[in-house]
Design goal:
By secondary structure, the protein is α/β, with parallel strands linked by helices. The chain has nine helices and 22 strands.
């Protein structure tokens, strides 16, 4: 009889885990708190697969940058005060140092490159290879100081095995067709790729079929003799041999029920997808000073950004949306605010750990619980490799990559 696995969470992390576990012969059930037609964090994000993001969120200068952005109500950063957010920010500040970046960056690159490779096989197996594009990612800078900082990253990227080159100001227009860009220049990361998130997520959901239980929120857990014996949901009780916590921004609250101390806040972000943009953008880009990502994808061109640290909450802050539009127009004059009129905004919550690294590994206190969450802005990138590593742990195989820095109990 196959071993039963319950995966808590129906985003890209949970779906990838379920997919690989199913391939290994496990009897898999996915518990998704959202409805079947919901558009969660794995649907509306920017679809960027980014080995270029080898510097963790907790890095030197980030506290000062956040404080500088904070007074601007339309700026790309904000937070909702609570004791949980305050505790998280204190741990975050302690990790904003060169040593943390130095010991994290090689692992992040290895995770990202492995995941991009898995995506190619996954998309092929699911029949959606056309959704993967190897177009690179352009980091576009308006200010000379920002450009100098981005250019300083090029030799660091090369040392990590990534292909990054400078984009001269005169070559910016090559990133689109009849596209006007107001900027000093940028850096092109040729190792990056992109996809349409909804296509890959729907393909995984179709593959898993009725193994996914929608509108099925975990309400409590039953622990006996150092093991999880069952979870109780809004619909029924689920018994299994193994459990995987991959509930995105809700993982922090559920971790408490499992007796785990895993600091977590939700990083709220927004996106707007223009079905008929006023000018064609052919290469994904990030408007660095505005913190806006732009991705051409199936169904239009997507503009995403902001990071609001909060408890799980899907309310929409119109000031943040206005800030995204304002930033886009400052870089791309053809994309005036009127172009976004009538476009329905999407809001999603990124699960953020305080050191900018995901939580992946066996729970120290429960022998049959594995954790896979806390990926922040890297969730889409790291979906397949996380699912693959978790499945190796379920099979009691040594993981392909070291998980020492990702231990769920590292802040205990």
């Amino acid at each position: 009889m196959p071993r039963r696995v319950v995966v808590i969470g129906g985003g890209i992390i949970g779906l990838s885990t379920a997919y690989y576990a199913l391939q290994k012969g496990f009897d898999v059930t996915v518990l998704d708190r959202d409805s079947a037609d919901s558009y969660g964090c794995s649907w509306g994000n920017s679809g960027l697969l980014v080995p270029s993001h080898f510097v963790p969120l907790a890095a030197p200068g980030m506290v000062q940058l956040g404080l500088k952005m904070l007074p601007n109500r339309q700026g790309p950063f904000g937070f909702s005060f609570s004791l949980d957010v305050l505790r998280w920010m204190m741990i975050f500040a302690r990790h904003c140092n060169p040593r943390h970046v130095e010991r994290s960056q090689q692992l992040l690159v290895e995770l990202c490159l492995a995941s991009v490779s898995l995506y190619e096989n996954l998309a092929s197996d699911l029949g959606v290879s056309a959704t993967i594009h190897k177009r690179g990612l352009a980091m576009i800078c308006r200010d000379s100081s920002t450009l100098a900082h981005e250019l300083a990253m090029v030799p660091r990227a090369a040392k990590l095995g990534l292909n990054a080159v400078e984009i001269q100001q005169k070559d910016l227009q090559k990133l689109g067709e009849s596209l006007e860009i107001v900027a000093k220049g940028g850096v092109m990361y040729n190792s990056d790729s992109d996809l349409t998130p909804g296509v890959i997520v729907q393909a995984l959901r179709d593959q898993l079929g009725d193994r996914i239980k929608s509108s099925c929120e975990v309400k409590s857990v039953i622990v006996e003799n150092g093991k999880v014996s069952a979870v109780k949901t809004s619909k029924e009780e689920f018994v299994a041999d193994e459990f995987v916590l991959a509930a995105g921004s809700w993982s922090g609250e559920l971790a408490n029920d499992f007796g785990l101390k895993m600091p977590m806040v939700a990083g709220k972000g927004y996106s707007l997808t223009l079905p008929n943009p006023p000018s064609s953008i052919t290469t994904p880009m990030i408007l660095v000073e505005g913190r806006v990502a732009i991705t051409p994808m199936t169904g239009g061109t997507r503009f995403g950004g902001t990071m609001e640290l909060t408890r799980p909450d899907l309310s929409i802050n119109q000031n943040r949306l206005a800030g995204i539009k304002k930033s886009v127009e400052s870089f791309l004059p053809q994309f005036k605010e009127a172009a976004f009129q009538g476009v329905e905004p999407w809001v999603g919550l990124r699960p953020c750990s305080p050191d900018g690294l995901p939580y992946i590994g066996r729970a120290p206190n429960l022998s049959n619980l594995t954790v896979a969450t806390g990926h922040a802005m890297m969730g889409m990138t790291l979906g397949p490799i996380t699912g693959h590593l978790v499945t190796q742990l379920l099979c009691e195989e040594p993981p392909n990559l070291s998980l020492e820095l990702l231990k769920p109990n590292r802040f205990c």
